[in-house]
Batch of 2 targets.
Target 1
Amino acid sequence: MYVTHDVTMTEQNRTRETYCEVNALALLLLSSSQQGADAFTTAAQRPNHLPTTTTSLAAEGFGPSAVKERPAVIDTNLTADEAKQALIDLIPRMTGKEEEYRAVESYVNLLEKKYSPVQTIDFLNLAISGEWQLLFSTNLTGNPNRKLRLRELVQNIEADGFGGSLTNSAQWDYADNEEGTFDSNGNFSIKCSYKINQGARMVIDLDGHELRPAKGSGVPSDIPAMVALLHRAIPKELFDPDNHAMDTTYLDAELRIARLTGPKYEGVRNIFFRKGQLEIKPV
């Protein structure tokens, strides 16, 4: 992991950051790799030592090994535009109820059934390039921590033929004090490259992580501890997408649904909205 800073650093901070570059992420992933790896996998996919949760049952239909498709909890006669709008209206108002997750599942399944995949690489690249704000992940497992606040999660895609770069960025505020006052802020980037090997499937390689405090911000005194909180707060498939592929299962000018396939996040869905096109006002 690379830690960069835009303002003058003390020698102590430089030493701390050098240590973090070498050790922080490796130790973090080693200790956390089995903690809530996939909140929405089916029971057959979930390791025995992980607890079964209400949310894992709620999206079981997303998984490729679901025994049967469960009855939808929405009007299946909706058009794609109606399902899209209903999904966008629902997500900011979710309170954790099982029927809400089942409704998300049903809207996503409906949109995917109605979707006609892009037929040319040039049109695909034009459609997916740019910044996409994460609205929902079926793999959110971390509990909020009062010391860390994520303001947004954005995925930026820069397409170049049958490949390109993909960067997941989290804007963060951090409270490095007992009072819980946010006194540092910045950006955490997960930098990846990808290749398209069949259809629109993007095979992802993780290139590195970068923690960049904002100009004028304080530097957290315990960077590994802060990165550990980021690891808990960011969906795991965005924090460590290595050895996975991403299928675009729905795409229009504003909404994108991506399905992960791979050893840890098989069947996980991410729902994105093009940045700047939607103002979310949770109730």
Note: Confidence is low (pLDDT under 50) at residues 5-68.
Target 2
Amino acid sequence: MPYYTTSLFRREGRRDMVGTQSLYLDSRTLDSAHTGLVFASIWIYLIRNFGDTSKINDIPDTVAMTIALTAILTFIVHCFFAHRIHKLSHSDWRITAIILIFAFLRLCAASVTTAEMIHLTTFSEFRQQFRWVFTLGLALSSFVDILIAVFLCYSLQTTRKASSSMDYVINSVILYTLENNSLTSAATVISMVCWLAMPNNLIFMGLHFVISKLYANSLLATLNARKQFQRERSQRGIPGELPLAFPGYADHFRPNHCVSPRIDATGTKLEISIEKTVEYDADADISSVRTHSPSPSSLPTHPSQAVSQMA
């Protein structure tokens, strides 16, 4: 899945703005670094400490660093969705600020978790002293996902108009938003439940490794979905900009075979009209008709003359 979403973005997102390209590169860099740390942690547990049960309780630095990278990637994704909500809500900072504050608190909780894991070096001591910090970070992450889903659906719903041709696209975006955020939120909640219900095993950590991948794919899937929604909008002949895309993104994907009005820099509407003129020469036909037509003097003026001419 990560390879598919990455290759799809490279093919479809070549005309994106610099900010979108940078967002993609940052997410892929963090995700690749997270994958490397996960592999290093597995090597420490399964290769270097193989058969040594006394090392199971230890927290390698690579495991602690995965929590920080997951938090940074999660914060980037939350800021991306907050930006979308900010655009849809007509720059209403009251909504955006709430999401950004809770997302930043989640980043702080994860940073404290990483620092204390490196300092304490064992899971048992970390559970006794800072169990609530890790729980708070997971709870805030799930809460921000719920806020994003609610605010996005509300913002899209307010853009709906009666009998609007954009209703189909808006319904698709709302459904996609619910599916996207519910997946990341469910993974975070399950990891938190395992952390609280089964503190003596590392099942929660295995699920926590997956959270970073889900957020990275959530971002890439959202960027890739713009092309699909734009294509559906064009096929249905729906005017206007796509509510999911960044400003100016939809202009790159206008179909070439469609002729639509353009607006120049002065605000004057330019229209193109095509007139078809057919010319033909009818002189020959008129002259032939005049040649074979009888003259007025030769026409009979009385029935008796007509009978005599017929005779």
Note: Confidence is low (pLDDT under 50) at residues 3-13, 238-268, 284-299, 301-311.
